Amino acid sequence: MGKHGDTKYVGGVRGRRTLRLLRSDSGSVALEFVILLPFLIMVLVGIIDGSLILYDKAAITNAARAGARAGTVLKVPPLSTSQIIAITTASAQGSLVTGGNATSPTVTVTQPNGTISGSPLQVAVSYTYQGLLLGSAFSALTDPIVLKATAVMNYE
């Protein structure tokens, strides 16, 4: 055993103060982490919510395309507007990722010249994004996030 019991002698009084200061720094690191943790979680949730917005935008774009394609293929008789809306809505609802309150997308079908071969069929889909955490917080602060997609195809 040394002069001072079980503790090592590190150069007198000055050495003991240095050891004490080194030991107390570990608590400040934990405190800094606790202070930064909410911001890190907010960034992570923001990344997830932003990714879901992009995914849902792609989902309604694909649904609009599927509805327009189903409506323009050569069929006798051609699909009615309500059938095109049903196909588009089913395609969108099967793909959308929601965080609780699922809202149905709004589908609009426009046939300016009827179902004549070569005339356009426009399918527009509008969807209000609810979000997981930040989406609903953004909706409370600003207008709701509305995703829109349109597909135009000509009748065969």
The strand line-up of the biggest sheet is 1-2-3
| Major β-sheet annotation | 3 strands, antiparallel
The ordered string of helix (H) and strand (E) elements is HHEEHE
* Average pLDDT level: 82
What number of structural domains do the residues give? 1
Task: Specify the overall morphology.
Answer: rod-shaped
Oligomeric form: single chain
- Rounded radius of gyration (Å): 30 Å
Percent range of helical residues: 40-55%
Task: Pick out its properties.
three-stranded antiparallel sheet, 3 helices, alpha+beta, rod-shaped, single chain, 156 residues
Give a concise summary.
The chain is of the alpha+beta class and 156 residues long. It is 53% helix and 16% strand.
Structure description:
It is a single chain. The protein is an alpha+beta fold and 156 residues long. It has one domain. 53% of the residues lie in helices and 16% in strands. Strands 1-2-3 form a 3-stranded antiparallel β-sheet. Helix 1 runs antiparallel to helix 2. It is rod-shaped.
Topology:
Elements: H1 13-72, H2 81-95, E1 106-110, E2 120-129, H3 134-141, E3 145-154
Antiparallel strand pairs: 1-2, 2-3
